[in-house]
Amino acid sequence: MKEIVLDTETTGLSVENGHRIIEIGCIELDNQILTSNRFHCYLNPQRKVSEEAFKVHGYSDEFLSDKKKFSEIADDFLKFIGDKKLIIHNAQFDLSHLNNELKILGKKPILKDQVIDTLDIAREKFPGSQISLDALCKRFRVDNSKRRLHTALIDCELLSRVYVNLIDQKEPKLNFTEKKDEVINSENTVINFCKNVIEPTVEELKEHQNFLKKSLKKNYF
User: Fold this and answer.
1) Structural domain count of the chain
2) 143 and 209 part of one domain
3) Is the pLDDT score of 179 beyond 60?
4) Rama region for 29: left / alpha / beta (φ>0; ψ in -120 to 50; rest)
5) Which terminus of the chain has a lower count of CB atoms within 10 Å, N or C?
6) What is the pTM of this model?
7) Tens digit of pLDDT for each residue in 75-106?
8) Is 208 a catalytic residue?
9) Given 19, 57, 89, 150, which residue is catalytic?
């Protein structure tokens, strides 16, 4: 099952106040395993970044001035996410901004049914606890030392690890066979594992039987 972990950065909090997206980050999971498929872009929002938002992500008006507009990347973005489930932390925020951008272009919105909100999962699992991305990284011992500022790709990478812990899928599912060596391919991810079947010798079986007889005699007589 393929899913997309998604995050955005914006010029400010509210689309009602005309704020726009300045960065989109997406990374793909295949059965909760990271693949090399990513989508990332900085965007010219055609407006100024608020002081509050600049303190969060550090993207200046000058830095964004020569970047593509959302209209130039919209089709590539929609093709990348397709109908895959979107994993988002506090999805209401990102979805409102994404759908605002799509509405401006006359495109269909992303439906809530397509989204898994890790904030909702965390709220249900840990009622009354801190459930920010940083707090969940701390809870699950995910190293977030690179997160000095909020950036879409770093946040996606952190969220992918938090998500796997939230759904209690901490290790990839491996279907072992009787073959000695086996390889599972997941896009560009390759997992090598082996299952060795060790058959005891006749002599080992005799020794084991003698051990059991001695143990039974010692315990019952």
Assistant:
1) 2
2) no
3) no
4) beta
5) C
6) 0.75
7) 999 999 999 999 999 999 999 999 999 999 99
8) no
9) 150
